[in-house]
Amino acid sequence: MILPVLLHHKNNPDLEIMVYALLDDPSDTTFVTTKVLEDLKTTGVNVKLDLSTMLGKEEIPTQRVDGLVFRRIDKRVDISLPKTYSKEKIPFRRNQIPTPEASERWSYLKRITNNIFLINPM
After folding, report:
1. What 3-state DSSP class applies to 119?
2. How many domains does the chain have?
3. Among 33, 42, 71, 114, which residue has the fewest nearby CB atoms (within 10 Å)?
4. Ordered per-residue pLDDT tens for the chain, 122 residues
């Protein structure tokens, strides 16, 4: 599932950007693109992360960032993220992002069509 959220650092809540969050149930680590960190004007600590996937295990250089917070688009709920790691690019498929047009095709989703926000992904 991919959905838009507002993201900020706890030390600078006034600098908030809208990004897409990819919710990946099997993952146990949180990632953010390096561009998002630049946009938030924040940096982390340089570390090496052991990244394990179905294709194997690899050690990658990254930044570990503490203090990121995401907020629902309606600003009703804030969630502090665990330690987060940066990646230059996070793979996703554009067709996995919900669109108002897609919701129009399903009668049970039509009522939320006006609540679907679209942003330009990285």
Report:
1. coil
2. 1
3. 114
4. 778 889 999 999 999 999 888 777 778 889 999 999 999 999 999 999 998 888 889 999 999 999 999 998 888 999 999 999 999 987 666 666 666 777 777 787 777 677 666 665 44
- pLDDT single digits (tens) 3-12: 888 999 999 9
The two beta strands, 68-71 and 2-9, are: antiparallel
- Please report whether residue 32 resides in a domain: yes
CATH number, domain with residue 64: 2.40.70
Q: Which domain holds residue 30?
A: 2-90
Q: Is 12 contained in some domain?
A: yes
Which residue in this structure is represented by tokens 């179905």? 54
